[in-house]
Amino acid sequence: VPFEDKKHFYGELSRVLKDNGKMAHYVTTDSLNPWFKFAHRYPDLFRKYLIEEIGGHYGLELPVELIKNIEKEGFMRLKTKKMLWEPVEFFLRFNNEYKYKSFLIRAVVSCTKRLMENDFIFVIINIPVSFLFRLAEALMPLNWSNKIAVSFKKV
Questions:
Q1: In angstroms, rounded to a whole number, what is the distance separating the alpha carbons of residues 79 and 147?
Q2: Average pLDDT, stretch 115-130?
Q3: The whole model's pTM is what?
Q4: What pLDDT, on the 0 to 100 scale, is given for residue 126?
Q5: Does the pLDDT at position 53 exceed 90?
Q6: Residue 131, CA atoms < 13 Å, CB-side half-sphere
Q7: Quick check: 142 and 64 in contact, CB under 8 A?
Q8: Are 87 and 31 in contact (CB under 8 A)?
Q9: CB of 12 within 8 A of CB of 42?
């Protein structure tokens, strides 16, 4: 939803949901994590690979702002799950002109590509990597999330 339409969108959710009704959202968000900070340094690439290519996420908000804006429309947050990109998603977003902007990005993209070439190794490596990602998600600030799952109750 484009940013300028979000207040209306949240208002409509409030209008159609009964009192004490619950709703859940799985939302791609803007982020303050190092990968997104790097990506934002190149606005044309950010628009191309992190907005347009993944379905037109024109109204990306930081998780804290998104939650605050929904709460303003008469909702109470019940639960939030912070999420980072998995390595495959990182590969999909940065295996392009971005990898030529940073040695570190290029190295991560290259390693991920090599891991993805062998299904058996990819599955074996994915187990500890997933554990490390879940640990990082538990410890990181909310605004470092790339996406969140959040539930609300209408009050």
A1: 14
A2: 88
A3: 0.84
A4: 83
A5: no
A6: 5
A7: yes
A8: no
A9: no
pLDDT of 73-91, one tens digit each?
Answer: 899 999 999 999 888 888 9
Closest listed residue to residue 94, CA positions, set 76, 77, 113, 70: 113
Distance CA(34)–CA(79), nearest Å, equals 25
Instruction: Spell out a b/e string for 115-136, using b for 16 or more CB atoms within 10 Å of the CB, else e.
Output: beeeeeebeebeeeeeeebeee
Strand order in the sheet with 75-83: 22-28, 147-154, 75-83
**Residue 130 scores a pLDDT above 90:** no
